[in-house]
Amino acid sequence: MPSTADAFQISSKIWFVWAIVWLLMAAWSKPSKRREFPWQRLEHVIPLMIGFLLIYNHRFAWNFLADRIVPQNSIVAITGLLLTAGGLVFAVWARIVLGANWSGTVTIKSGHNLIRRGPYRWIRHPIYTGLLISLVGTLTLQGEVRAFLGFAFALFALYRKAKREEQFLSDEFGEGFAEHTKQTGMFLPRFG
Predict the structure, then answer these.
(1) Beta strands, E only, 1-91
(2) What is the dihedral of CA 10, 12, 16, 22, to 10 degrees?
(3) Per the confidence metrics, is the pTM higher than 0.85?
(4) What's the rounded Cα separation, in Å, for the pair 139 and 18?
(5) What b-and-e string marks burial along 88-103, b requiring 16 or more CB atoms within 10 Å of the CB?
(6) How does pLDDT run along the chain (192 residues), one tens digit per residue?
(7) Can you tell me the distance from the alpha carbon of 76 to that of 69, in angstroms, rounded to the nearest whole number?
(8) What DSSP character marks residue 111?
């Protein structure tokens, strides 16, 4: 069984492999028809970067931010690794289903389709769901207050980006997207 510290290092490698796969998959994308302005992109990129810095950069481990609030044991290590890997696999699945409609920025593509299959049957932003699940796994392994604060920044960033995407999709697909929102949750499936 790996220690929590070893598991945190393994999770970093999992994130690295995911980033390489993600960059390779970015080559298959339709041309853009409409995209957010660069300053709008900074509204979600900056908080996301702050979130990752809080989780991974030990320079933020001062005062109460360095207090460990998650115990270190093999159950935590395995759970954190499973959440990290599982969330990233889920995000890749959602990215594959989204196909050439995907973009790293908030964008409407030429010939954009409203995807309602795969994880999009239940969740409007399953890529973000996968990333958030992975971050929960990683912060569990990191275990300090700063990791939870970093998660809050990441959640805020992805929520802002998702809201902008929903505005773009609503403008593009109108009633079709409105119907989709009634049947799906933003980050979690809609129950009832």
Answers:
(1) 32-35
(2) 100
(3) yes
(4) 17
(5) bebbbebbebbeebbb
(6) 788 889 999 999 999 999 999 999 887 788 888 988 888 999 999 999 999 999 998 887 788 888 999 999 999 999 999 999 999 999 999 999 999 899 888 999 898 899 999 999 999 999 999 999 999 999 999 999 999 999 999 999 999 999 999 999 999 999 999 999 999 999 999 876
(7) 12
(8) T
